[in-house]
């Protein structure tokens, strides 16, 4: 009903702990190596990986898969995957989860969080009584987006099939029938977005009375998307003595409040600094420019990226309309590009992601729907065509590259309209030991100075005008490079464009064509999105000569 609250027809069960069937949740057997590990070794491991722990009774971390004492049906798949060692968050989180304790894990994207909760979930299920007809799932994983839900499903299926476990994926934007059938056939593991799960619960199509292992994945993102009312309703339907694991990339006060309310006596594990941080394997390049320059700069950048052997690239834009517009013009001119956003059908999104993963279309234009949970390990470049509304989303966007131990490069077009984000961005860059360009520093200082006043960009009093001059300190901007760009990178001077591109059409991109094994050349159209491969701002040589960002 229009205007009704999510889950408004759901009644909170009256849980009688005396009559509820008991369940086992502690399956951890400490390996002799772990048992004999000295406090000094543990301290060194925590310091090396910036792991901090809050809470009582945290077990000693494991350093190898064998030390986790996982059952054979789990170890068999790990050996097939030829993984060498757990990630830092897995090393500390697995013993906690296998002990049946509540856990809050705060770690950056690409750190192995999904496996951090799926493997203990599979062990948990295999120690519970078999499902009977009409029982709901034993494990419930709540996640903000359908893309993330589908990726978790892949991991769950991969490790669950060795012990004949079934998983169901429940999300909006797709037919309900197949999802319901998966649940009715007895899925022990349910991965769901909150809205669709609420629909099924209200319709009486499933129940959570058997659920004893709950995961809130990307909790910060779910709260950002306004799912808190649905989450509260869903949690009311689950027995209070469940085991709960909450995973988040950031630790804002809203997530902290949710954890305090719904997790009793939990252990919190943080990897990395507690302030907003980016992956140190990513080279971050910020180009301070004017809004009208961005399209021209994007073309130059893509020209050079497409000459690289590894060139898989995501371009983030602010709106769905812009994503469609840029994609349409690029495709018309032969670029191998697809787009993804919230208005696309599930079939369209799946098709775009599959083509992007296998490299048939190495460029993906996306809104923030893909900034989290897009699990493609070989993305080498991220371009922030539009800077996001908050710096947390910036960190998640660039986290699509530099995954699974790889390195990556993130380019960001930053305009005076984004100036209020400059202090946060500079903090992220400083923490990751990246070079900050003078123009960005100037915006940061001006933003800090304007926070107490009411000036606007372009105003006459006190603030900065709409024009900046990089050659002087008078607050004027005059790009004398003839449309070229300077990307401020780790080499101090950064990428320097020598070319002078002319935009020969209204709102368009002109050039002599594109050819990269993805289609023939086409002539420049009015309103097109084209560039000249022989004229580049960033050279392939300069890309390869950039030193990697410093680590610690």
Report on the architecture of this protein.
This protein is of the alpha/beta class. The chain contains 18 helices and 16 strands. The relative contact order is 0.11. The model is unreliable at 452-528 and 530-552 (pLDDT under 50).
Quick summary of this structure?
The protein is α/β, with parallel strands linked by helices and 552 residues long. It has helices spanning 32-35, 39-48, 72-81, 88-98, 113-126, 146-160, 176-184, 194-202, 219-224, 228-236, 253-262, 294-305, 320-332, 346-357, 391-398, 422-431, 438-450, 540-545; strands spanning 51-54, 103-106, 139-142, 167-170, 189-192, 213-216, 243-248, 267-271, 282-288, 313-316, 337-340, 363-366, 381-384, 408-414, 486-487, 495-496. Helices cover 33% and strands 12% of the residues.
């Amino acid at each position: 009903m229009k205007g009704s609250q999510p889950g408004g027809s759901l009644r909170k069960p009256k849980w009688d702990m005396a009559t509820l069937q008991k369940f086992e949740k502690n399956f951890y057997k400490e390996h002799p190596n772990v048992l004999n590990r000295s406090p000094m070794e543990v301290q060194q491991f925590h310091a090396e990986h910036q792991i901090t722990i809050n809470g009582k009774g945290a077990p000693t971390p494991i350093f190898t898969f064998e030390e986790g004492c996982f059952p054979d049906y789990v170890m068999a798949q790990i050996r097939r995957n030829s993984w060498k060692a757990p990630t830092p968050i897995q090393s500390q989180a697995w013993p906690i989860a296998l002990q049946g304790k509540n856990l809050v894990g705060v770690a950056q994207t690409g750190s192995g969080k999904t496996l951090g909760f799926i493997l203990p979930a599979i062990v948990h299920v295999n120690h519970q009584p078999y499902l009977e007809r009409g029982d709901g799932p034993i494990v419930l994983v709540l996640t903000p987006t359908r893309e993330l839900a589908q990726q978790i499903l892949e991991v769950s299926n991969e490790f669950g099939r060795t012990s004949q476990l079934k998983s169901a994926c429940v999300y909006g934007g797709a037919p309900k029938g197949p999802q319901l059938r998966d649940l009715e056939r007895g899925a022990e593991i349910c991965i769901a977005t909150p809205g669709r799960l609420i629909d099924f619960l209200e319709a009486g199509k499933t129940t959570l009375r058997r659920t004893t292992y709950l995961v809130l994945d990307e909790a910060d993102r779910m709260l950002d998307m306004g799912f808190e009312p649905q989450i509260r309703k869903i949690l009311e339907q689950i027995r209070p003595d469940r085991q709960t694991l909450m995973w988040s990339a950031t630790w804002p006060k809203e997530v902290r409040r949710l954890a305090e309310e719904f997790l009793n006596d939990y252990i919190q594990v943080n990897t990395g600094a507690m302030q907003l941080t980016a992956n140190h394997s990513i080279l971050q390049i910020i180009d301070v420019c004017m809004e009208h320059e961005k399209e021209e700069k994007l073309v130059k950048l893509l020209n050079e990226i497409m000459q690289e052997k590894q060139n898989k690239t995501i371009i983030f834009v602010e709106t769905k309309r812009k994503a469609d517009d840029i994609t349409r013009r690029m495709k018309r001119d032969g670029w191998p590009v697809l787009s993804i956003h919230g208005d696309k059908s599930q079939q369209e999104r799946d098709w775009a992601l599959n083509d992007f993963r296998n490299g048939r279309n190495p460029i993906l234009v996306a809104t923030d729907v893909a900034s989290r949970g897009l699990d493609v390990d070989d993305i080498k470049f991220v371009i922030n065509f539009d800077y996001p509304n908050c710096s947390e989303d910036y960190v998640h966007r660039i986290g699509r590259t530099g995954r699974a131990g790889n390195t990556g490069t993130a380019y960001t077009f930053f305009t005076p309209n984004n100036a209020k984000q400059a202090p946060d961005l500079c903090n992220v860059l400083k923490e990751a030991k990246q070079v900050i360009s003078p123009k960005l520093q100037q915006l940061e200082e001006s933003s800090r100075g304007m926070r107490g006043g009411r000036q606007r960009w372009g105003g006459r009093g006190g603030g900065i005008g709409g024009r900046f001059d990089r050659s002087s300190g008078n607050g004027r901007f005059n790009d004398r490079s003839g449309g070229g760009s300077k990307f401020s990178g780790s080499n101090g001077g950064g990428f320097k464009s020598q070319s002078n591109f002319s935009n020969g059409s209204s709102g368009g991109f002109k050039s002599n064509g594109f050819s990269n094994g993805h289609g023939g050349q086409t002539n420049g159209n009015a309103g097109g999105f084209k560039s000249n491969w022989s004229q580049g701002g960033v050279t392939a040589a300069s890309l390869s000569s950039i030193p990697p960002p410093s680590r610690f």
